[in-house]
Amino acid sequence: MKQGSQSTKTPCCLKTPSMVSMEHRLQETTLSNLSKISSAERVTVNPQQPINNNNKFHTLNNQKIQRRFPRKLAVDIQFTDIYYRTRVWSLQQLKPSKKEILHGVSGEFRSGELTAIMGPSGAGKSTLLNILAGYKMRGAEGSVKVNGRNIIKGHHNEFFRLSCYIMQEDALRPALTVKEAMTFVAHLRLGYSTSHRQKQKQIFDLLDMLGLAEHANTRTVALSGGQKKRLSIALELISNPSVLLLDEPTTGLDSSSCSQCVSLLKLLAQQGRTVVCTIHQPSALLFEMFDHLYAVAEGYCIYQGGVQGLLPFLADMGLTCPSYHNPADYLIEVASGEYDADLAVLAAEAAKSVSERRKTPRTITAGTEEVVKTISGTNVDDQKPHAQYASLASSEDSSIDEIPESSPVSASLLAQFLLLYYRNIIVLCRNYKHFMIRIGAHLGIGLIFGFLYRGVGSKADSVFANYVYLYGTILFLVYTGKMAVTLSFPLEMGTLRREHFNRWYSLLPSFLAIILIEIPIQIFCSMMYIVVSYIYTDQPLEEYRILLFLMVCVTVTLTAQAAGFFIGVVTPFKIAVFLSPTIAVLLSTFGFNIFHHDIPEYFLWLYHISYFRAAFHSLVVSMYGHNRTLLPCEQLYCHFKYPDKFLYEMDIRDVNISENTIFVGSIGIFLHLCTVTAIWIRLNRR
């Protein structure tokens, strides 16, 4: 199908003088230098206050950027007959049925072009982008070739090294400043093969290019929506990827932020990168900034080609855009089935344009010409394809391994752990309120328990009261250890998923950095409770009994914490909030409310696997076992004047504290291993 040229524009909307003025400014942004913001225009920003997004957005020119960020291999993406099917449960048939989301779509995204994937909600835009990024592989069929290699059939790891995927939600660390976030990523992605001075220079250049230099010391939580989006892009540009895939980068942004974001993507594409993004309904001005358009409707491709060729294409199909209409809005209406549009006919015509596009030789664009001049220092003929592009267009055997040997090596596993651990310490120090609340809760409950059970640990007539105190101690430490991470760790998964998918770090260093922050916190909080309640309840001040008490309490709260991590990973957030305390109550029943000989045989396994039971029995024995002397009795008769008699009647006389503590600790280690396995499955489930 013959498409309209760049010079002949079909009138599609009415433009006011302000819109024309804005269009000229946007064109100047992408084709020439923007003047830097003068010192008089810069504003001192309070890191704790939200940033006004109406500041001027400035960039460096292509020549300077190209010197600072050398080009890698140009990457073209071709995909053919992409199908995607997912399972949907049917209540009528009581079995899952397959639903097809994408119906054999094909296309090509070239380097040096800014491509927009458009379509109404539910058309399959994000699904297609997820497949191209390698984020969603299960249920996908077809061929996705990157410079000739099929990434669906075993070469996706090679593609990951050349690409980055920026998801719709900005999963940033709110407690870090812009500069700190960039520095951590630079150390993780560039390793220590790149000097610190080079990293700092590259960070400054990126922030300056993206208009974030004046907000370098601003915490990310105080950035505006557009600035957060630009920071997300800057974090991925640290490794200078050849391919940028973005899922609806303009969602939630105002018109000014949208213009800045698309202008930035346009500039990145002009440097020779392959930039593909999904976008729902851009304005007319933003729509004209895209080089290539890929329209999707009901899982079919209904148009692909230049933006200027869209309206002539639709006109040939009998669909004429009114002169007052935004062409992007008109396309969405057509894709939604309005104007009696025959989507099958549109899809058939769009399929023909795929083969025509692949047969068309690559011609250098104005933006890419500037890049070539910078690299080679020679003049380039506009009509002559660049040698690198020509080889990509003609050769199916192009390798995506052609990365310079000087490419930086990522940080080692030990370096990743140290960096992530240091980052977590910074976040903890700045979010100290949560930490102080946990300490205050443990101290408060310790004081309350101490006054409620004051002096019960040394009297024969209050043995049962002390028994309840010991049970309450285990119950409290289990709940606080478990629920603190059950509620917080699922919130970490979104950021962890994005950072791990883009190869910032490996799973093991990340998990160790998380638990080695949480473990000392939980130990410290538990100690606050134990010291206060132990003294007030008048427990025996014998050194070995105190050590046994501390050992059992710390072990059980850390095991409960491990259980909280596991439940938070394997279950949805709302289910985890209900399931975690339910399991704790179930396990606490065995060993306190019921004796071993009263438990039915089919429930004995719960008694044996209950780490709550093992810890509770060990705690009781640590207080009343090991030949404790007679307890003072202030009444006429005290039935449990002899501590051994109490242990005998509670059926815990033969409890071995060492074995039980090892058992409880082993369960904690096992649960941590299960958690790592569950996280790995979630992160690698494509």
From TrEMBL:
Organism: Cryptotermes secundus
SUPFAM superfamilies according to UniProt: P-loop containing nucleoside triphosphate hydrolases
Pfam families reported for this sequence: ABC2_membrane, ABC_tran
Family to which this protein belongs: Belongs to the ABC transporter superfamily. ABCG family. Eye pigment precursor importer (TC 3.A.1.204) subfamily.
Localization per Swiss-Prot or TrEMBL: Membrane
Molecular-function GO terms, alphabetical: ABC-type transporter activity; ATP binding; ATP hydrolysis activity
InterPro entries for the chain: AAA+_ATPase (IPR003593), ABC2_TM (IPR013525), ABC_transporter-like_ATP-bd (IPR003439), ABC_transporter-like_CS (IPR017871), ABCG_transporters (IPR050352), P-loop_NTPase (IPR027417)
Location of the ABC transporter domain: 77-323
Name by which UniProt lists this protein: ATP-binding cassette sub-family G member 1
Annotated GO CC locations: plasma membrane
Keywords: ATP-binding, Membrane, Nucleotide-binding, Transmembrane, Transmembrane helix, Transport
Membrane topology: Multi-pass membrane protein
Chain segments annotated as transmembrane: 435-456, 468-491, 511-535, 547-569, 575-595, 602-624, 662-681
Top-level taxon of the source organism: Eukaryota
Predominant location: membrane
UniProt-listed PROSITE patterns: ABC_TRANSPORTER_1, ABC_TRANSPORTER_2
